Amino acid sequence: MRERKIQGQAPPASQPSASSPLIAPAADETVNDSLRPTRLMDMIGQRAVADRLRVALEACRIRGEPLPHILFDGPPGLGKTTFATVLHHELGVELAMTSGPALDKKGDVMPFLTNAIEGSILFIDEIHRLPKSVEEFIYPVMEDFRVDVVLGEGISARTLNLPLKKFTIIGATTRSGMLSSPLRDRFHMHEHLEFYDIADLARIVTINAAKLKTTITQEAALELAHRSRGTPRLANARLRWVRDFATARYDGVVTVEIAREALEMQEIDREALDKQDRRYLEGLIQVFHGGPAGVEALAATLAISVDTLADEVEPFLLRSQFIIRTPRGRCATPKAYEHLGIRLPKKRPASDGQDNLFGHF
Ligand code: ADP
After folding, report:
1. Does ligand 1 have an atom closer than 6 angstroms to the CB of 86?
2. pLDDT tens-digit readout, 216-228
3. pLDDT in tens, 278-304
4. Domains within the chain, CATH numbers bracketed
């Protein structure tokens, strides 16, 4: 079983050439992530997704066939890559990893297709950023495990129909809405990952503290879970920080008081919002009078990319009801005003002459 996660190093001859952009999503973390579970039974939460994957694994083991193509979607850090690596471990098959933006042209994807062995997995992160030409190129791959290669140019050009080994494509996206329907429909399983609840995050923190040989109280694990925005990747990052803080300033044991002190130093508040989230809410309330405001206008005002706002900031603010999304744009909720200690206006000015959504306050 091999896992091809190559970045900045020449792959062996049988693998894609050094010039092909073979990269690992979140490469540093993917390669060295000692906290990443390797078996399905070690995955915490996402029970419905794990159950369906268990069925797919069992069926493909019984039939001796590759896994169906699977699409994972959901905000960053919820386990899309982890599920792909878990499936590769469960089946004991080879895993190659790349990402949509790295596959700039057909030639970039070709080595992955021709090197894929029977039953192996090709993981494509950020698949919504695959260029249209590459996307269309892989349609016959996903359907019939063949690829059409054009040889020569002009009138002497001819198309070679190259058969491929049967393998699995696992796609991951933070923006399933940006995926074209022909591509989406070629995935046999669509799995949406939800934010994690506090109990599951606290379990992840406790298990990972043990892996990091750190003593943490149950109360401190719950505190970290509360401040991790429903996201395991953030829970792990908070845990590592709190552990460093406890080691540098105290005796290394993480108590709830130490956890709070460490997180306050990172400016992560009791609602799990960080500086960027608060800037977003302040901008929406103070510059746009609480909204409605379009994401482009907000991004320009805050000097943050639209992608960062849409992928990393807004999903949690929406889920925790600090903002709502309307056809006319984003609006801050009374909870956002209260959290920032800003007084609710009696009647907010409606820039477009219509009553705004919170006109009653
Ligand atoms: P994504 O690909 O969705 O951005 P990852 O799969 O890289 O997210 O997950 C980030 C980290 O969170 C992983 O390295 C892993 O340690 C942890 N993690 C994710 N999902 C789970 C889970 N269900 N149980 C335990 N840890 C998880």
Report:
1. no
2. 999 999 999 999 9
3. 999 999 999 999 999 999 999 999 999
4. 22-30+196-265 (1.10.8.60), 46-192 (3.40.50.300), 275-360 (1.10.10.10)
pLDDT score for 353: 43
Q: Tell me if 232 CB under 6 Å of ligand 1.
A: yes
| pLDDT higher than 90, residue 85 | yes
Ligand 1 atom 13, closest CA: 36
Which of 41-45, 174-178, 343-347 is modeled with the greatest confidence? 41-45
3-state SS string for the chain: CCEECCCCCCCCCCCCCCCCCCCCCCHHHHHHCCCCCCCHHHCCCCHHHHHHHHHHHHHHHHHCCCCCCEEEECCCCCCHHHHHHHHHHHHCCCEEEEEHHHCCCHHHHHHHHHHCCCCCEEEEECHHHCCHHHHHHHHHHHHHCEEEEEECCHHHCEEEEEECCCCEEEEEECCHHHCCHHHHHCCCEEEECCCCCHHHHHHHHHHHHHHCCCCECHHHHHHHHHCCCCCHHHHHHHHHHHHHHHHHHCCCCECHHHHHHHHHHCCCCCCCCCHHHHHHHHHHHHHCCCCCECHHHHHHHHCCCHHHHHHHHHHHHHHCCCEEEECCEEEECHHHHHHHCCCCCCCCCCCCCCCCCCCCC
Q: Which of 73, 125, 200, 277 is catalytic?
A: 125
